[in-house]
Amino acid sequence: MDIEEALKWTDDRLFAKTGKHLDSLQKAILEGVWQRETYEQIGDNEHCSKHHIRKEAWKLWQLLSDVFEEDVRKANIRSILENGRYSHIENLHIGNGDINVCRENPPYAKTAKKRSTNNADKVQTEKRHDLTEVPKSDRLYNRTQELNTLKQWILEDKIPIVSVIGLSGVGKTALVVELVRQIQDNFDRLLWRNCTNAPTLKSLKTNLIEFLSPPTETKSPSLIDCLRSHRCLIILDDFQELFTSGELAGTYQTDCQDYSKFIKEIATTHHHSCLLIISWEKPIELATLEGRKSLCHTLPIDGLGESAK
Ligand SMILES: Nc1ncnc2c1ncn2[C@@H]1O[C@H](COP(=O)(O)OP(=O)(O)OP(=O)(O)O)[C@@H](O)[C@H]1O
Ligand SMILES: [Mg+2]
User: Fold this and answer.
1) Nearest protein Cα to ligand 1, atom 15
2) Cis amide leading into 160 (omega within 30)
3) Within the chain, which residue ranges are assigned CATH 3.40.50.300?
4) How many Cβ atoms are within 10 Å of 257's Cβ, its own excluded?
5) Please, what is the Cα angle at 28 between 26 and 30, to 5 degrees?
6) DSSP single-letter state for residue 155
7) Cα–Cα distance list, 225 to 76, 171, 235 (Å)
8) What are the pLDDT digits (tens) for 71-108?
9) What's the CA-to-centroid distance between 81 and ligand 1, angstroms?
10) SS3 89
11) What is the pLDDT of residues 214-256, one digit of tens each?
């Protein structure tokens, strides 16, 4: 699908649901995001400020979330449009490996439910991996030790919360992308989410549960139920977006303070899943949890230095 098709496809769905078409700024935002432009670049093209574009984009993502009945953000709109057109399972190429991307959200929900009624047992045990938000990454160099440490903590020690912390650009995301490529087969459920727009805990939890819970379930389970019933790996990238600037490192914004309780719950409740956090700063509650070794481990990442050049 190219951008023209994507715009038409989106506009058709918007019109069918609301009776309205995309306006020119909404089209420009979609086109810019499709081409991986920043809000500042889109603003320059449209002769307005990046703040205005950010505000309008936020409204557009809310609108499209209603239309597509799933959480739409800058980070995932392109994959939603690409996946929405063709198939609910496609191959995503990461490094040298292929990862199955299985989307159970609308516009595929009807298909998924129908399939589950016919073949419920099979669906329950099927692996479901959603890596549509994984950024593209080139081959990883010189991180064997870090990869081995993470594999030990996640696969052998079964630590429920693992964090990868380091400055912007040091290679946290690239490291975890490679880790995921290597360990994905160990998990029934695998989900990568970027916290770019600081999702509220409520919206994140709803999104996680929709993905993790079996489609045959009639009563909606809690997130902890999901983490118990399947071996899940949940990756939250750019977690620092939930923090406030100018205060103690790792302090949550007002709207995101309930994440602290959420993390403690995942660390201290019995299950066999893992939450992997990628961030510039360590969430402050992790410092307390690290006192109990089996609950949480942090891997600080430094730049590769001269050896990698
Ligand atoms: N070990 C590595 N081998 C090869 N390329 C790397 C390595 N580490 C990082 N890179 C490349 O460096 C760039 C920045 O890495 P990455 O995006 O992973 O940083 P980051 O720490 O996640 O930054 P941010 O916190 O801003 O998201 C990417 O293009 C990535 O592919
Ligand atoms: Mg990153």
Assistant:
1) 171
2) no
3) 89-308
4) 13
5) 70
6) I
7) 26, 33, 18
8) 888 888 887 777 665 333 333 434 434 444 444 333 33
9) 26
10) strand
11) 655 556 788 898 899 889 999 999 999 999 876 677 789 888 9
- State in Å: Cα 140 to ligand 1 middle: 9
What CA–CA distance (Å, rounded) separates 112 from 144? 38
How many Å lie between the centroid of ligand 1 and the Cα of residue 303? Answer: 9
Ligand nearest to the CA of residue 165, numbered in listed order: 1
Helix or strand run (H / E) with residue 237: strand 232-237
CATH number for the domain whose boundaries are 89-308: 3.40.50.300
Averages of pLDDT over runs of 10 residues in the chain (309 residues) are 83 86 92 88 89 91 86 83 50 41 37 39 65 85 93 95 94 95 93 91 89 67 88 95 80 89 93 95 87 87 65
Q: Which atom of ligand 1 is nearest to the CA of 139?
A: 4
CB atoms within 10 A of CB 159: 20
